Amino acid sequence: MSIRRCTPTRALLLATVVTGALIVSGCGSDNSKPAASSTTAAASTSAGATSSAPAVAAAVTVEVKDMAFSPADITIKAGDTVTWKFDDRFPHAVQGIGDSALGINSPIIHKGEWSHQFTTKGTYRYLCPLHPEMKGTVTVQ
Q1: 125: which residues sit within 8 A by CB, 6+ positions away?
Q2: pLDDT (tens digit, 9 = 90+) per residue, 18-54?
Q3: How many CB atoms lie within 10 A of CB 123?
Q4: For residue 112, what is the enclosing H or E element?
Q5: 69 and 133 in contact (C-beta within 8 Å)?
Q6: Angle at 79 between CA 74 and CA 82, to 5 degrees
Q7: In the Cβ-directed half-sphere of 51, how many Cα atoms lie within 13 Å?
Q8: Quick one: pLDDT at residue 106?
Q9: By three-state DSSP, how is residue 117 classified?
């Protein structure tokens, strides 16, 4: 009989321990999420501080018409955005040339716009993959 009386007590004790462990692990899980949020908030804060600089950032437009990029060669500052405005009889695209320009890859557009923000200094060459004679360069200082 003592075994039967101990078994419910042990079961209750085991249930209490398991419940406590689940609560503690749940609390630990919640604590890690706010820490990630804090990190995100810190990143947002630093991005917010950085965003005061991009408020000064410029937006440059390159016209894509008459089978040409105009202006073909531009110089901008890191953080600036270039917008290609397509308005031609033929569809065009913007495709980077070389390893440094891999992220520059617009869809084929007949009329409309496509933008790319340049965050790293360097020289980025590009062309229209449909009309390879159409070339341009973005120099980021």
Answers
A1: 96, 97, 98, 101, 135, 136, 137
A2: 334 333 333 333 333 222 222 222 222 333 333 344 4
A3: 13
A4: strand 109-117
A5: no
A6: 40
A7: 6
A8: 97
A9: strand
> What is the model's pLDDT at position 35?
26
Q: Specify whether 41 is located in the same domain as 61.
A: no
Please indicate, yes or no, whether residues 80 and 135 belong to a single structural domain of this protein: yes
Residues 31 and 44 in one domain: yes
Q: Is the pLDDT of residue 107 over 50?
A: yes
| Amino acid, single-letter form, for residue 117 | Q
Is residue 94 within 8 A of residue 87, CB to CB? The reply is no
Q: Are 98 and 140 in contact (CB under 8 A)?
A: no
Q: What type of residue is 95?
A: Q
